[in-house]
Amino acid sequence: MKTCLFTLMMICATAFSVCRAQTPVYLDDSAPLDARVEDALSRMTLREKIALIHAQSKFSAPGVPRLGIPEVWTSDGPHGVRPEVKWDEWEQAGWTNDSCVAFPALTCLAATWNTEMAALYGKSIGEEARYRNKDILLGPGVNIYRTPLNGRNFEYMGEDPYLASQMVVPYVKGVQSCGVATCVKHFALNNNEINRHTTNAIVDDRALYEIYLPAFKAAVTEGGTWSIMGAYNLYKDQHACHNSYLLNDILKGEWGFDGVVVSDWGGTHDTWQAITNGLDLEFGTWTDGLSSNSKNAYDNYYLADPYLKLIEEEKIGTSELDDKARRVLKLIFRTGMNKNKPWGALCSEEHYAAANKIGCEGIVLLKNDNDLLPIDTDKAKRIAVIGENAIKMMTVGGGSSSLKVQHEVLPLDGIRQFAGNDIEVSYARGYVGDTSTVFDGVSSGQDITDNRNEDELINEAVEIARNADYVIFVGGLNKSRFQDCEDSDRKGLELPYAQNRVIEALAKVNDNLIVVNVSGNAVAMPWVDDVPAILQAWYLGSEAGNSIAKILFGIENPSGKLPFTFPVKLEDVAAHNMGEYPGTKRNDGSDITDTRYNEGIYVGYRWHDTRHIKPLFAFGHGLSYTSFKYGKVTASNSEMTANDSITFSVDVTNTGNRAGAEVVQLYISDEKCSVDRPVKELKGFKKIYLNPGETQTVSFSISKDALSFFDTGTHSWVAEPGKFTAHVAAASDDIRSSVQFELK
Ligand code: GLC
Questions:
Q1: 323 three-state secondary structure
Q2: How far is the CA of 281 from the centre of ligand 1 (A)?
Q3: Which single residue of 229, 361, 445, 579 could bond 185 by disulfide (Cβ 3.0 to 4.6 Å)?
Q4: Residue identifier of the C-alpha nearest atom 4 of ligand 1
Q5: Which domain does 678 fall in, by range?
Q6: What is the DSSP track for 508-519?
């Protein structure tokens, strides 16, 4: 009996080991990633490798069907998962199961100055992308806010490289924890939309390394992003999607990026450069990224037959091809073939709650004279709401980040809901801006046409405002061209349409005027002295009306801080004062426009500080319904060496009568340096929550890295010994306490 049992066991064991031996390594989840990649690569034909590295449809690449290696499906965008489009079109596929949650735009996320919100955001949107079976989420965008005219600033994280670096890392980790790759974009120097395919950005290395690269570097070296999207523009006369400096030297060389460089849609222009300058996955060729799209013959892509032909004619080897294929295979093993990834969720209560929370934490209270806000619901009987942005859906439009949402709570609806039944809320249009309601075949379902003239609209608004207890004007920008919209820039800093006239007319008839500015960019406010309360409310997505109302009625205490400067006028902006914008078109027959970033490192508050230009509202500014007192900042020691760190501590007390959050900011000044440096630079921030009367000690520990500048001579970061000053601040123009220390 025992013998035959033993024999049986041996037969099973042998059978198992034989069949196990036949399980290819690339399919073995327990095998190391590189071993799986090498095994898969060794099984692929030349044509399969070529097919792997370019699109097969508008948003997918083929994988390796014969080996059971799945397709790679990508989807926009940074604020939510784009509705399904037809195989080879931008137009809607007409699905009815692809409505999503629209999360607040990334300027709002940056304005929370709360890395926990970034983690929540990444996980939430990652779950939606996972549920929709996407392998790459085409976002987030981290291009620095160089000019307030850039149409896509609403998709990015502001003017400061440290803030953007801190906020992008948790977002990347959150999304990728769902088995979905982020595709951090647009690498690099895509700081305007006008001439976006032909702008050649000319920038010195200090500005490149100190301002425009840090957020991408953090996404790669700290966030571990599995893919990066090349930008449309050129740098050093090479398109960024196949740029040897940006992709080979910096991204893959200096930073050791092991992921996939994805072209922007239509960003590839040359086979040889695409082969040798670091592009790994070509998408969207023959389109301009958004509109025109000829029937794409995918075999004609730059990395398709033309590449195959060069190899077959032995004009080039296959080492570059194998490197590209390895990177794409690695991404597939991390995503589509990752058996351990979670299942995701779509339109869950948790996702709406996340959108709402991020919105509430990101709204910035710019001004609140006489504590007009929050609205006192005991006193208020009549509230007048005025403005097109109170009723206009903002999740549709704006370019590739446009979404089809399951719902979007409009500001007027949110205000009505939270006002309750005892308060009469009336509405008047005030002005008519952009009545379009469709983008790429997605309709907001609204009809907001209104043919009355400017005076009729203003008179109606003034009438309902005259005897109201509170007047709430909801205006700003929108997602149509020449506003906050991809592929076009704004024409100026001013509010479009007749908004300034309406606001001034309302200010004349009612002192309790609140302006809610819905935008992803700074706007001019010539009426700022006549308006007692101003809220910066971003594109807040599905929960917009709820987040805005919660702040207006004081259910939530605002704690957002500006991620970019609001200049008084355009000439106060470095890019429009010292820099070139939009640039100078070459007259050499090429269609290239050279844009010289003459302002160098002096972007945003760095410029305003150095040139003593008072902003309308400063970077890092944001008020609360309570107040905070800062104690004196102390340093752990008066000097430090290059090998150790130094800690600054400050006590912050909530001196008001309600709980609230404060973002304590740390800026560092280099008192003496061999090169010019900004007056101060953000090197730390912490958001703390305090009950009335509560005090917390906030500490920042920094190393010499926080004291360094990029030395172009040695191509390295250098901290020069000498005196420095640490400032703790409530805003870049609101330093509360400073302490000197020395780097030995
Ligand atoms: C667009 C955008 C990019 C987007 C891509 C796909 O042109 O520049 O951000 O992800 O094409 O829609």
A1: helix
A2: 14
A3: 229
A4: 400
A5: 623-743
A6: HH-S-EEEEEE-
Are residues 187 and 310 located together in one domain of the fold? yes
| Interval 372-389 mean pLDDT | 97
Number of domains in the chain: 3
| 729, part of any domain | yes
Q: How confident is the model at residue 297 (pLDDT cuts 50, 70, 90)?
A: confident
Which one of 76, 264, 484, 489 is the catalytic residue? 264
The Å distance, Cα 339 to ligand 1 centre, comes to 29
Q: State the distance from the centre of ligand 1 to the C-alpha of 231, rounded, in angstroms.
A: 9
Which ligand 1 atom is the nearest neighbour of the CA of 90? Answer: 12
In this structure, the answer to whether residues 297 and 383 fall within a common structural domain is no
Is 685 within the bounds of a domain?
yes
118 and 81 in a common domain: yes
Q: Which residues contact 283 (CB under 8 A, 6 or more apart)?
A: 54, 55, 59, 61, 74, 262, 263, 264, 265
566-576 pLDDT, tens per residue? 999 999 999 99
**Number of neighbours of residue 714 by Cβ within 10 angstroms:** 8
pLDDT of residue 295 exceeding 80, the answer is no
CA of 263 relative to ligand 1 center, distance in Å: 9
Nearest-atom index, ligand 1, CA of 59 = 6
Query: Which of 534, 556, 578 corresponds to the end of one domain?
Result: 556
Residue 511 lies in a domain: yes
Q: Does the annotation count 264 as an active-site position?
A: yes
Minimum-distance ligand 1 atom for the alpha carbon of 186: 9
Q: Is beta strand 442-443 parallel, antiparallel or unpaired with respect to 470-476?
A: unpaired
Query: Which residue's C-alpha comes closest to atom 1 of ligand 1?
Result: 289
Same domain, 368 and 282: no
Q: What mean pLDDT is reported for the chain?
A: 96
For ligand 1, say whether the CB of 136 is within 6 Å of any of its atoms: no
Q: Tell me, yes or no, whether 137 and 282 share the same domain.
A: yes
What's the CA gap between 178 and 649, in Å, rounded? Answer: 37
Q: Using a 6 Å cutoff on CB, does residue 76 contact ligand 1?
A: yes
Whether the CB of 62 sits within 6 Å of ligand 1: no
- CA–CA distance, 360 with 559 (Å, rounded to integer): 8
Report whether 320 contacts 276 (CB < 8 A).
yes
What is the model's pTM? 0.96
* Mean pLDDT, residues 100-128: 98
* Alpha-helical regions (H) of 486-595: 499-509, 544-552, 574-577
User: Ligand 1: which of 57, 76, 143, 291 to mutate, most ligand atoms within 8 Å of CB?
Assistant: 76
Q: Supply the DSSP symbol for 105.
A: P
Q: How far is the CA of 186 from the centre of ligand 1 (A)?
A: 9
Q: How many CB atoms lie within 10 A of CB 180?
A: 35
C-alpha distances in angstroms, 422 versus 107, 382, 417, 419, 471?
35, 9, 11, 7, 17
Average pLDDT of 285-307? Answer: 77
Give the model confidence (pLDDT) of 170-205 as tens digits: 999 999 999 999 999 999 999 999 999 999 999 999
Torsion of the alpha carbons at 326, 331, 332 and 334, rounded to the nearest 10: 120
Calculate how far, in angstroms, residue 241's C-alpha sits from the geometric centre of ligand 1: 13
Which atom in ligand 1 lies closest to the alpha carbon of residue 196? Answer: 8
> Is the distance from CB of 521 to CB of 566 less than 8 angstroms?
no
Do 563 and 522 contact (CB within 8 A), yes or no? Answer: no
Is ligand 1 within 6 A of the CB of residue 290?
yes
168 and 117 Cβ atoms separated by less than 8 Å: no
Q: Is the CB of 79 under 6 A from ligand 1?
A: no
Nearest residue (by CA) to ligand 1, atom 6, is 265
- Residues whose CB is less than 8 angstroms from the CB of residue 551 and which lie 6 or more positions away in sequence, other chains included: 360, 363, 365, 373, 374, 535, 537, 558
Instruction: Provide the CATH number for the domain around residue 466.
Output: 3.40.50.1700
Q: Is residue 408 included in any domain, yes or no?
A: yes
Is the Cβ atom of 289 under 6 angstroms away from ligand 1? Answer: yes
**Which residues, other chains included, contact 530 with Cβ-Cβ below 8 Å and sequence gap of 6+?**
503, 504, 507, 513
For residues 283 and 147, membership in a common domain is answered with yes
Ligand 1 site, residue 240, Cβ cutoff 6 A: no
Q: For ligand 1, what atom is nearest to the CA of residue 76?
A: 10
